[in-house]
Specification:
By secondary structure, the protein is α/β, with parallel strands linked by helices. The protein has helices at about 5-15, 20-30, 40-50, 65-75, 90-100, 115-120, 140-150, 175-190, and strands spanning about 55-60, 80-85, 110, 125-130, 150-160, 195-200, 205-210. Helix 2 packs antiparallel against helix 4, helix 2 runs antiparallel to helix 5 (about 90-100) and helix 3 runs parallel beside helix 4. The structure holds S-adenosylmethionine. S-adenosylmethionine (SAM) binds near residues 84, 85 and 87. One of its GO terms (molecular function) is O-methyltransferase activity.
Amino acid sequence: MTSFKPASWAYAEDFAYEPAHIEAARQQGEHLGATPVSPAAGAALRMLAATTGARTVVEVGTGAGCSGLWLLEGMPSDGVLTTIDVSLEHQRAARAVYQRAGHAPQRTRIISGSALTVLPRLADRAYDLVLVDGEKDEYPAYVEQALRLVRPGGVVVLDNMLWHDRVADPAVRDETTMTLRALAKTLREDDDLMTTLLPVGDGLLVCVRR
Ligand SMILES: C[S@@+](CC[C@H](N)C(=O)[O-])C[C@H]1O[C@@H](n2cnc3c(N)ncnc32)[C@H](O)[C@@H]1O
């Protein structure tokens, strides 16, 4: 790696243009403790939604709606975001930001509850894209469901897969870091998937289902 690499990554992070309404949602997410995606990660999510033509998206971890706004912007105008969160307070905030951004109510299906209770109720292969951004220790169980939900050619995206620079450091061996590190390797080795780790934000792992 050249000595300019960290500067290049920082440049790429700052390169993303974050519209004012998404910036407001991000700030509200930070205020509520629902850590939002960074602008660069959000722009990558929008790009993935647009390139897959995602009409049906599931999100685990609504937060205050920041990632949802990015996804909605990449989806076609009749696309529907199904978003799941245990926190009613976070979902109230998200509903308001979707509304303020001018998204029709029928474009979002906001489901309250634990993801591991809700996900099994969703239909097999009915979704174009699934974003996983809930409780980190539950990621392996979310992924099992996400792989069932996504259609062939669809995409499963996991946020925080660099976990605050801990995953890349082999000396860090706490349970959450080890879980995320092992999960990424398992998905990389799955022949049914094409997996890429994008070093944007806190790390987006993108798995395309063959
Ligand atoms: C990192 S925040 C999501 C941020 C959001 N994706 C964004 O970028 O704006 C994680 C969210 O997951 C929710 N959460 C935590 N445990 C959960 C669970 N078991 N099921 C569903 N949601 C959960 C939290 O309430 C929180 O809003």
